[in-house]
């Protein structure tokens, strides 16, 4: 088999919609001020547009977007998110999972579940929502949600016991179907980060991976490119993080990037090569790295 999967994350779609004053209350005030002060001039629509253009020109078989399409979970942001998903492609070729900014305040979840429904539903719809499983050309995309509303200044994520239990079954079931298992999870389950930004049940997630395995885990959240590994059943499982899809070229992490995974081989002898394409000073994208993961 040969399958090319593209991965991008954390577009935090700019510009921020003119927030209706009445809808700005509680945690949103903190987020709004934070955005205005630190991020307002940082995320770039021009870079995001250029990334989408370059990504589509690579003609991947499928695209995975690991959350934080929104900033404050305002109604208009879910519409903007749906528009971006449409630009990336039809729902059967694009998969999205939510990030903490999409579920920034109570009540947001039902809004993105509706607005983005066709992009985050599994092949078999069940009553649970997450994880969902989509089979595409020998690959299983397993979408998780770590997005939970938190107190101001917190950006933690949580899977919860019920979702972890269903993840274990999904991993076992897709392995039995001889699929290359790609787990999509907004909060990285490996590496170091601030306590305020962590996945609170990362240890329990790692236990599931150790027991049931996976071939590849894709994350965002930190806006930093990183490659870590977790212990799987037969070897280490790569955990890859990508920078924010709207970060300008001169930001301290090198600017917006996306990864292309060329997946091949067969069960027990999978191959996976990762290519990174990153924004350049002229706002074009160029290949900046290539690495054999498996
Ligand atoms: Fe983010």
Describe the structure.
There is one protein chain. The protein has about 290 residues and is α/β, with parallel strands linked by helices. It has one domain: Metallo-dependent phosphatases (Purple Acid Phosphatase, chain A, domain 2), CATH 3.60.21. About 25% of the residues lie in helices and about 25% in strands. It is built from six helices and twelve strands. Strand 6, helix 6 and strand 7 form a beta-alpha-beta unit. Helix 3 packs parallel to helix 4 and helix 5 packs parallel to helix 6. The structure holds fe (ii) ion (FE2). The site of fe (ii) ion has 7 residues, from loops.
From the structure above, extract its key features.
294 residues; alpha/beta; six-stranded mixed beta sheet; Purple Acid Phosphatase, chain A, domain 2; 26% helix; globular
What structural class do you assign from the helix and strand content? Answer: alpha/beta
Q: Major sheet: order of its strands?
A: 3-2-1-10-11-12
Which of globular, elongated, flat, extended, rod-shaped describes the shape? globular
CATH-derived topology: Purple Acid Phosphatase, chain A, domain 2
Give a short account of the largest sheet.
6 strands, mixed
What binds here, in terms of ligands, is: fe (ii) ion
Low-confidence stretches: none
CATH architecture: 4-Layer Sandwich
Q: What integer is the average pLDDT?
A: 94
Number of DSSP strands?
12
Specify the helix fraction band.
25-40%
CATH class: Alpha Beta
What's the gyration radius in Å? 18 Å
**Alpha plus pi helix count:** 6
Strand content: 25-35%
**CATH homologous superfamily title:** Metallo-dependent phosphatases
- Write the H/E string, N to C: EHHEHEHEEHEHEEEEEE
Number of domains: 1
Distance between the termini: 15 Å
């Amino acid at each position: 088999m040969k399958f090319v999967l593209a991965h991008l994350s954390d577009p935090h779609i700019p510009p921020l919609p003119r927030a209706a004053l009445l809808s700005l209350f509680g945690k949103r005030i903190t987020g709004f001020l934070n955005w205005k002060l630190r991020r307002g001039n940082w995320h770039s629509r021009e870079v995001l547009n250029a990334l989408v253009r370059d990504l589509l020109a690579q003609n991947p078989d499928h695209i995975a977007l690991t959350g934080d399409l929104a900033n404050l979970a305002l109604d208009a942001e879910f519409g903007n998110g749906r528009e971006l998903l449409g630009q990336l492609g039809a729902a059967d070729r694009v998969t999205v999972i939510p990030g903490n900014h999409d579920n920034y305040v109570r009540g947001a979840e039902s809004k993105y579940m509706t607005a983005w429904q066709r992009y985050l539903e599994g092949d078999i719809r069940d009553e649970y929502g997450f994880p969902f499983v989509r089979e595409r050309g020998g690959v299983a995309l397993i979408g998780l949600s770590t997005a939970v509303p938190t107190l101001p200044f917190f950006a933690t994520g949580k899977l919860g016991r019920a979702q972890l239990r269903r993840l274990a079954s999904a991993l076992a079931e897709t392995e039995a179907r001889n699929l290359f298992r790609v787990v999509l999870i907004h909060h990285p389950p490996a590496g170091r980060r601030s306590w305020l930004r962590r996945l609170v049940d990362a240890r329990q997630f790692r236990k599931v991976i150790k027991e049931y395995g996976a071939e590849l885990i894709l994350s965002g959240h930190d806006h930093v490119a990183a490659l870590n590994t977790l212990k799987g059943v037969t070897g280490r499982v790569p955990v890859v993080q990508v920078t924010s899809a709207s970060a300008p070229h001169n930001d301290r992490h090198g600017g917006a990037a996306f990864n292309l995974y060329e997946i091949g081989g067969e069960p027990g002898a999978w191959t996976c090569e990762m290519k990174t394409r990153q924004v350049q000073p002229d706002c074009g994208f160029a290949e900046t790295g290539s690495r054999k993961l498996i």
